[in-house]
Amino acid sequence: MQLDRISQIKHTDSGNFFLLCGPCAIEGEEMALRIAEKVVTITDKLQIPYVFKGSFKKANRSRVDSFTGIGDEKALRILRKVSETFNVPTVTDIHEISDAKMAAEYVDILQIPAFLVRQTDLVVAAAQTGKTVNLKKGQFMSPESMKHAVQKVIDSSNEQVMITDRGTMFGYQDMIVDFRGIPTMKQYAPVVLDVTHSLQQPNQTSGVTGGRPDMIETIARAGIATGADGIFIETHFDPSNAKSDGANMLHLDYLENLLTHLVAIRKTINTF
């Protein structure tokens, strides 16, 4: 994957990691623009290549009454407005084959959720749009097995593909990051570490996913130190009232401090 082939991405010659960051779900226009404005300001200051992240719908929910979205077209139009307003690329996840063509009209990167990354028809549909494809490693998959998912994209005449590690589930209510997987998967494609989802605590008896946001910086630092090409962080100005994944999100007020530390680590690594 060539980072500079992603439309509107900036600071690609800075030597920094790239960042996929935004709210878990698009809850409305005002919140999306507010978050994007803050992150754009920070990433321009630190010269971090930035992609705004927001799910236009949430299909993988614990309960039937969980928030799933504000409407597909409405949310996708908001993603387009974010891109046009701040001159940044956007990424959203897709869940069905029909989502690929629809979402590709609005965003620059199509993300395949971890639970669906072995769905060949979905991966191929995303690849055939010509958009960059972000493959989330399944919580049930080894790093080595991701080479096959990457190959599906390449075999669909699309070399714009990346892998995102979001942890592996070894128990019932925890995700574990095996940092050996980062250099392994870098043999196949650029690797992003999804810091916030790696700290989820799913399968709670309440039906609402928990998390460990206090460990965000620890996991992020380790990811940069072990060579991750990019970092994925979900953030919100009011995580406790976010409609999805609030328990493991980073508060927007803490983002600049975290990224400043990560840039310093990256600069040190680049001297070796």
Automatic annotation (TrEMBL):
Keywords: Cytoplasm, Transferase
Superkingdom of the organism of origin: Bacteria
GO cellular component: cytoplasm
Pathway: Carbohydrate biosynthesis; 3-deoxy-D-manno-octulosonate biosynthesis; 3-deoxy-D-manno-octulosonate from D-ribulose 5-phosphate: step 2/3; Bacterial outer membrane biogenesis; lipopolysaccharide biosynthesis
SUPFAM superfamilies registered for this protein in UniProt: Aldolase
Subcellular location: Cytoplasm
A Pfam family annotated for this UniProt entry: DAHP_synth_1
Keyword Cytoplasm among record annotations: yes
Reaction equation(s) it catalyzes: D-arabinose 5-phosphate + phosphoenolpyruvate + H2O = 3-deoxy-alpha-D-manno-2-octulosonate-8-phosphate + phosphate
InterPro entries according to UniProt: Aldolase_TIM (IPR013785), DAHP1/KDSA (IPR006218), KDO8P_synthase (IPR006269)
One Gene Ontology MF term: 3-deoxy-8-phosphooctulonate synthase activity
EC number: 2.5.1.55
Domain DAHP synthetase I/KDSA: 8-267
GO BP annotations listed: lipopolysaccharide biosynthetic process
Family according to the record: Belongs to the KdsA family.
Name of the protein in question: 3-deoxy-8-phosphooctulonate synthase
Species in which this protein is naturally found: Imtechella halotolerans K1
